[in-house]
Amino acid sequence: MKRIIFYLSAIMLLISCSSVKETERQTIFLGYDFTPYTDKGFLFTPFLYNDNYESIALLTVEMYPEIKKQHVKSAFDSESTKIVIEEINTNEVIKELYNKAVELGANAVVEFRVGDVSYMNGTRRIKGVSVSGFAIKRIK
């Protein structure tokens, strides 16, 4: 019995080591450029605003990708269906939040947050992006 456990452990170790791929060092930069909004006098901040302001709205924008079925012909002239899922650009979602805040009369979004959201589409989890914050009108 001990021998069987030993062999099973050795096999599991070999399987787990063989599924690991070597990779080079990676550096990934994640960030959002707010200068297009700052240039218009608009403020995005993850913090509270401590000067005078008028409350406008609590806003959340969620964006999910478009999903399309694409018919593909193979080399043997048989047709199959491929699922194509659009990429969501977080800057587009931020722009939507900005547009709604400005439409409501805000010139800032404080307590700004970015997060992932998802829903189930059949057996596939579809990932989206959520941005939210407290829209205010800063009083100068």
Description:
The protein has 140 residues and is an alpha+beta fold. The protein has one domain (24-138): 2-Layer Sandwich (Translation Initiation Factor IF3). It contains three helices and six strands; from the N terminus they run H-H-E-E-E-E-H-E-E. The protein has helices at 2-18, 35-38, 90-103; strands at 43-44, 53-63, 67-73, 79-85, 108-121, 124-138. The protein has a four-stranded mixed sheet with strand order 1-5-6-2, covered by helices on one side. Strands 3-4 form a two-stranded antiparallel sheet. A hairpin with a 5-residue loop joins strand 3 and strand 4 (79-85). The chain is elongated and about 75 Å long. The model has no long low-confidence stretch (mean pLDDT 88).
- Overall helicity: 25-40%
Shape by Cα distribution: elongated
Write the CATH architecture name.
Answer: 2-Layer Sandwich
Q: Summarize the helix and strand pattern as letters.
A: HHEEEEHEE
The unreliable regions are none
And the CATH topology?
A: Translation Initiation Factor IF3
The fraction of residues assigned to DSSP E strands is 35-45%
The radius of gyration is 24 Å
CATH homologous superfamily - what is it?
Hypothetical protein apc22750. Chain B
- CATH top level label: Alpha Beta
Structure summarized in a few sentences:
The chain is α+β, with helices and mostly antiparallel strands and 140 residues long. The protein is 25% helix and 40% strand. Strand 3 and strand 4 form a beta hairpin.
